[in-house]
Amino acid sequence: MSASHQQFSDLDVNQVARNLRHMDDASVAEMVGGSTRGPVLEEVFRRMAEHVDPQKAAGVDVLVRFEIDGAPGGGVDRFDVHFVDGRCVTSREPIGEPVAILRCGPVEFMRMVLGGVSGLTLYEQGTLKVDGDLEAAGSLRSLFAIPG
């Protein structure tokens, strides 16, 4: 594990979520930009498994893909999130064919996953695009205990 990754893995996710809610967009963009982007995103996805509610996810078998734009060179960071058997498995590598692909910027992503704003709000504002099963994408938040 790199020093940067270790730095983020030691953070109190509840405190980060509380702090994020009071940060302006420029500060959030700085947090998830440049050399910290990869480690921050990897840590967020790694921790998803820790925050899934196994009872709510029981019987759910759904695979979604997140595409977060603004990566260096104009690319996107892709992560698959698979809910199966009450668990959440995440991967930078494709796991399979997703039922939905969620596309957004890094600021919107951080606000959505750390509970500052709902995916529905972002979708209605046009800053979250969903290709595929809108209902499956909309149900994701209910499967987690959102930090903060």
Automatic annotation (TrEMBL):
InterPro entries, per database record: SCP2_sterol-bd_dom (IPR003033), SCP2_sterol-bd_dom_sf (IPR036527)
SCP2 domain: residues covered: 43-144
Pfam families to which the protein is assigned, alphabetical: SCP2
Lineage top rank: taxon: Bacteria
Protein name per the record: SCP2 sterol-binding domain-containing protein
